[in-house]
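Submission sheet (multi-component)
Chains listed below:
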Amino acid sequence: MTHNTFEPTIIGFTCNWCSYRAADLAGTARMKYAPNVRLIRMMCSGRLDPTFVLRALSEGADGVMITGCHPGECHYIEQNYKALRRYLLLKRVLKGMGIEPERVKLVWASAAEGAKFAAETTAFVEEIRKLGPLSWGKDEGGGMKDEIKNGDSSLTIHAERSSFEKEVAA
Amino acid sequence: MKPKFAMYWAASCGGCEIAVLNTHEKILDVDANFDVVFWPVAMDAKYKDVEAMEDGSILLTLFNGSIRNDENEHIAKLLRQKSKILVAFGSCACEGCIPGLANLSPVGDIVHTAFNTLTTDNPHQIYPRTSFDVPEGELHIPKLEKVLRPLDHVVDVDYYMPGCPPESHQIAAVIDLVIKVVKGEAELPPKGATIGVGNSTVCDECPRARNVKTIREFKRIQDIAPVDPNLCLLEQGIPCNGPATCSGCNARCPNAGAQCIGCYGPAQGVMDYGARLITAFSSVIDATEPQEIERILDGIPDPIGQVYRFNLAGSLLKANRNAFKS
Amino acid sequence: MNKYLLYPGCSMDSSARAYLESLNTILEPLDLQLDEIEDWNCCGATEYLGINLIPAYSLIARNLALATKQMDSVNGTGGTRTVITPCSACYLNLAKADHYMQERPALGAKVNEALSAGGLEYKPGTLDVRHLLDILVYDIGLDAIKRKVTRPLNGLKVVPYMGCMLPRPDYKHRWSDHEHPTELDDLLRALGADVIDYPLTTECCGGHMTQIGPETAFELIRRLIAGAHERGAYLMAAVCPMCQLNIDAYQLETNRFFHTHYHMPILFFTQLMGLAFGREPAELGIGAELVSARNALAHIGVEVPVTQEPATPRKKDEGLPMPRRWTRHEEKEAVK
Amino acid sequence: MTERVGVYVCHCGSNIAGVVDVVDVANWAAEKLGRRGVIIARDYKFMCSSLGQELIEKDIKELGLTRIVVAACSPHLHEKTFRIAAKNAGLNPYLVELASIREQVSWVHTDKAVATAKAKAVVSGAVSRVIENQALEEIKVPINPNTLIVGGGIAGIQAALEIANAGFHVYLVEREPSIGGHMSQFDKTFPTLDCSACILTPRMVEAGTHPNITLLTWSEVTKVTGYVGNFNVTIKKKARFVNEELCTGCGICQEKCPKKVIDEVYEAGLGYRKAVYTPFAQAVPNFPVMDKENCTYFIKGTCKACEKFCPTGAIDFKQEDQLINLDVGNVILATGYDLFDARRVRNDGYGRLPNVFTSLEFERLSNAAGPTNGNIVLRDGKSTPKSVGIIHCVGSRDRNFNNYCSVICCMQGLKFAHLVHERTGATVYNFYIDMRTAYKAYDEFYQRVLEEGTLFVRGKVAEVTDAARNEREKGKLIIQVEDTLASKQRRIPVDMVILSSGLQPRRDSKDVGKLFGISCSTDGWFTEKHPKLDPVATMTEGIFIAGCAQGPKDIPSSVAQGAAASARVLDKILQKEVALEPVRASVDKATCSGCRICNGLCPFNAISFIEDDQVTEINPALCQGCGTCVAACPAGAISGTGFSNEQIIAQIDGLLMKNLEMV
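Outcome: structure written.
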């Protein structure tokens, strides 16, 4: 897949009360946005278990969009702040795993903000498109061993420099 | 005829073997009830002897260590084939443990570090290679794989016994159980179960007092003086992994005045240990402004080491992206 | 210490000398440091943009590029990113170039191509272009200014005249309102002056129409002067050298044109600040204006020393007399 | 795989089928999702039709389906429909899952291939998820028959009367001393020119004397807990310093009070009231309130004139604010609007130029009971204007202020034009952007005003100034405007300018929204559940909205919404109980370590710690189902119905097409 034709796959987590309805509103108003985000409805962004994000990324998503009510407007009073805290720590962990923190984005969108939802979605898809595919763990395991057999391994990269080795061979 | 017993040491430190020894006289029960057919650390054995065994002829194999190279993988598959019950024994086999942290680096970097850092005297830049011709024939050393894997990423595992190492009293209890099963006095737990553990997390066994937690600062334990000996460590701002770590160790570390670092892995049924800690730590942060939250999070300077110290290879993401790419 | 880069503009050195002189007197009390952009050039004033866009923007952007360079060399990138201008026309031009170079990348690229000939480059959006008044009201703050007042201008009836180029189009939403901003009112009030609500505060002074269509300009000037006069103002306060020049220098001609007798002095707001901070009129360039502010200031007990009254300016329209036209007879005579 | 899943893909006419190849999606699901248990996949024109529902019911019975996925519109529209269909066929309704391929696919994407591919992914996610769904039972809770109505304007009064007349009790809370709202300040109402007070006062009195209505004026709601059917509300009843039991409303205290205060509220700053006052003669209730800030006794410690003269000893200087706790089943918010503050439009000169008036000021000027006894005069209180300019859309339809149309300003402007013309004979100019006279008899009124000779200029006023350019303009207010019909700049000198200011959400509408758990639009109006089909309900069950709190509207619409909201409340009351979504969290006590991480997370106090057992417990009656604690439990001991880990993980995998039998 070349960079130009790369179509990111993105999982979006939405809150039943705001962002999911914003998505509904974008639909009702026939606003067009990038088709790459597949939504999951939860009751609240506070339901977001970091496991879900990790699962999505490890199972083939190129990015994850987390959406919730604006700070102070949570249907459950303050649970979106809890989502915010988890998100900030999760980003640090993802960074440590070599994943660009931009691949996971937190967006606040109220039920009235269909246009914002559509715009943020399209913008996020473009951001991920620029970052390229994540394809998590696709090169793992067996393939490695073949490479070793072919002598094309990092294990032997410095082998030619080894004069000692040559001596032994002689 | 006594049922057959095997134990193997793959990529790990050997602590698990010591832990078995540490069961004291209980180890005699092993000998009394089993015919030990393969246990490289305790007796001489050859792989070809194992290969010659009938499939499924070993009743119980305790496999400690994770899969780092192709030799580990080969023996894991061999023992799976020959064993009725294969137990991932110890944190390395269960979830990668400390060796799993190597998954943060590309394998080339690891080799380079081992053979070419300032502390390594390697003037001729000699690096190992996997096969080598000598007059006597071709020599092999096992090939390192890109990433380290827990046992169940390679073969089907019947039971998991976590811990770094598993507590000796838990090992003794498991040995007792298997002996009873052999005698027909007990039944095996369902396949896939984690054994030798409690059914909750470390806090369940921790004697420290706990309250509703609100943290405005995370600190290293050495930066707090004095540490309240009776109060929950997390409440004192020390990132203790106890809330997310499977019980079974009798809260050894918190009892000794140190925070739990998570060697018993996740509670049963949990998909990703690190995620549980991410959510636990962030849940107790007392702040709503992003900058303030970030400031508090700065108190956990090595988030990966904190939440995945024993679990990285067994986590959903398994390794750093660069390690996969290498 | 509040540090900014200063783009003074051409008039500060000539027609608006009083502005510069008075500005210099308020820097120290307000703990303000203005570093002049080295080797700056004219902003092109109001006309050049109407003639040729790319050279005009390049001319302006050269100043921005110089400012960036100077900042980077002096402060590193962490220092001030603010360029201030005391002149509304300069302010608008610099802000406009910054805005349009950002909005229209093709223009930005062309301008930068021109700048590169001189080894310069300007990344639009990297500087804050602000007017002196903006800095004083929003950075220094009215409270700080109030604290420095030693001679409150109590009883000085003044109309604040913002002019048209300062609050509009206001790319960065710096002013309280585009039609009736009150920053100057607030500042003068902080000095203790009796500020009169001036509905004409953002009306045009005529700009360079004085040169190309004087009758249009005179009407605009008349409205401003008449408006101030009718509201009982002793004087007007200006923030722009162009406004000050038009009201001051063309007042006599406007009066002649309309057969009126207005006497409405106009001073720069910095001159009034200097007065309020206790400086003497002479230090502030007061007395150099054509429509004398002496009587106006006498209301609050400030004496302006008499300088030599400028000679009555020559009527511009009249010119020198032409030679008398020859009659055909005379011509014939001469050829003989 | 033991579950038997049926997938139903809806065409929704051409709404879905126009963009998504629904036949392909159904065939694909049957073929590729078979391993996950899909045994039948159909497409149908309108799944929500009775025939569509019957199709599902028939398949459940005949094919023994145990799970249903309907790929159609948003679950917020038809989830209920298909759950009922499943229930009718004997399947637990919570084993039905909706895949939104209309709002999330066909309506927002244009490329047919891409949209079809996304629809497949969405269906795949729903199939994976539905397999993890569990049979749940609705939670039934009783409905408290009492209703709280916040705001005693015409919308609130109407709603209160409807419910009270139906025989149920209403608590009507009003922030001001009297009910009546903005309508009580008006003189005439458009287009009929009825006297506002004449039609409003009887309603106010009825509300004030109704046995089923408890009026709580000079009061504000400070706290709301609970949920539909079972709200607990705390109301602060501000000290009136007048004992309501003893006061007869005779008015002597007002008469004797020596302190005059400008009345900023009722008289819009044009008139005066006393420190002890009822805002207007027909106030309901007609007990006065004491304005503590201005009362001489409270300021200086002496006076007490009111106390001395009160014939019943009703004045009580020691009265304190009271907190009242009420249990109610439903709430109607009819909190109204604030007038746009015309001072913000500086170029219109309000606040600077004396003879620029706001619409509310003019209402008081023209009101016979107002400060000038209905004489339309200039700010000097004497002169009658000879020419008047009325400016429309002040603060509305203007991106500097509010983008929306305030609905009432055109008709209000026309009403003013008529009143000025009728009472003063002055020349009247109306400056408008567009003339909006929709609704019954409105345009006829416009024609009438036109015929009366009012002059209309189409153009947005640039400036109102007193800076005259010539003799004609001297001493006048000059309106500078571009006449867009004549393509001309005009300067029109007038004596008086009236600004037809727009309506704005209440200053505290966001706070009130938060208090009651409902959201506001970006402008600040309360958000209705559906803009067309559910205009008085909100996302929060049991909380309804009516009148201008929902958006600008005129009196008839406000009254209609008040009545509509009350009908919705009565519907709830008469059902006696309400079914709640069985989305709840629970703790597995064996797994709970008692770490107490979750203990600080629940804003509804549903989480408590049992000291004896050292474990945490969740009270299902208080739990609102947000799932925050489920996500937070480090031991994985808390699970949540309806949105379980298993369901969500399965949906993620499904959406990512994991383990798909690819061709």
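Remark: Chain D touches chain A through 55 residues (CB under 8 Å).
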